[in-house]
Amino acid sequence: MELESAFEGYATPSDESYKTRGEHAEVALRSDPVVWCSAQVKPLSQAELCAYEETGFCIVRGLVPLQQIEACKNHLQTFTNEDQLKVTDNCRFVTEANSTVLRSIFAIHEDKSPLGELARAKFLTEYVQQILDDDIYVHQSRVNLQAPFKGTGFSWHSDFETWHAEDGMPRPRSLSAVVFLDQNAEYNGALMVIPGSHKSFLRCPGRQKGANWEKSLQSQAWRTTCSVDSFRHFQTCPIPEVYGTPAEEHLRQLAESNGIKYCTGAPGDVLFFDSNLLHASSGNRSPFPRRNLFVAFNAWSNRLQAPFFSEEQRPEHVAHRQRVERFPRSA
Ligand SMILES: O=C(O)CCC(=O)C(=O)O
């Protein structure tokens, strides 16, 4: 079957650059800038911007005061109460597969809480505005908990590949800010990245029918279903699903040529990384938690359209379209 006909009925991207979810895995060159500003030297210096452009990420040490980090962690304790989780809107909370252990909490920036405040803090948004050179908004926010002994990690992926295919984000004018709430080390599931991989676009195979998000938020390698009234009890069956998962051969080639880097650091450090950077994390078999706040920002000029390669668009709490607050660059 021709690739064209496989995508019949989907929204048409403005060009072919980020075609994905076809018959075959392929590697394409990114056709957009990484750093969109030209000469601004604050908060990142010109040298830091150049390094970000080259590697696709940077870590700013000690950006968040420890007091604020402690307040966030105290607030997170309130989410471990099962009764509270049961009465809250269902799929905002994602558990580890076949488990009641909490894996992710979505739309955290909307909460009136220390975590919500941190996700919208000016000292984060000014970095993002500098790199993207635009007004910005939160596309997605979540806390990933990587629980001691139980965290199962995330397979290799480019966020932008999913955001483009399933959310309708036109271009990779977007990035994530990751606030380390705990020490992030190799042994407790620190994020791994392939430096420089953001310059390639890895087209992922697998034509998608129906919603992929219920499955992919738990694991990109297993099919799971989530029933609405028993959201804490996912059923997992061993059928591999590959939507949004790059080919292992392409990952191997990139890792061989560019290496793999662990993004380790202390509470209060912040990792900024390009939306097309390949990243993953191993599970957490240590007795120490690895809780991180992820805030994905998109340029205001790059707001979502219809999904480019998916029949269903993901829900608001996973990809914001309606409930968006604009952070103007000059504010
Ligand atoms: O928390 C992690 O280890 C990885 C999370 C991730 O890749 C994501 O949320 O897209």
Summarize the structure in words.
By secondary structure, this protein is an alpha+beta fold. It contains nine helices and 15 strands. It has helices spanning 3-6, 46-55, 66-77, 82-87, 114-119, 122-132, 159-167, 213-216, 248-258; strands at 26-29, 57-60, 93-95, 102-106, 136-144, 154-157, 174-180, 191-193, 200-203, 223-225, 235-237, 261-263, 270-274, 279-281, 292-299. The strands form four sheets. The protein has a seven-stranded antiparallel β-sheet with strand order 2-13-7-15-5-4-3. Mean pLDDT is 86; it is low at 1-7 and 220-240. 2-oxoglutaric acid is lined by residues 144, 154, 159, 189, 191, 279, 281, 292, 294.
Which descriptor suits the 3D outline? globular
The CATH topology name reads Jelly Rolls
Q: How would a crystallographer describe the biggest sheet?
A: 7 strands, antiparallel
- Kindly state the mean pLDDT as a whole number? 86
CATH architecture: Sandwich
How many strand segments?
Answer: 15
Distance between the termini: 51 Å
Using only C-alpha atoms, the radius of gyration works out to 19 Å
Any idea of the CATH class? Mainly Beta
Bound molecules: 2-oxoglutaric acid
Helix fraction? 10-25%
Order of strands in the sheet with most strands: 2-13-7-15-5-4-3
Number of discrete helical segments: 9
Write down the oligomeric state.
single chain
Descriptive tags:
331 residues; alpha+beta; Jelly Rolls; seven-stranded antiparallel sheet; four-stranded antiparallel sheet; globular; disordered N terminus; binds 2-oxoglutaric acid
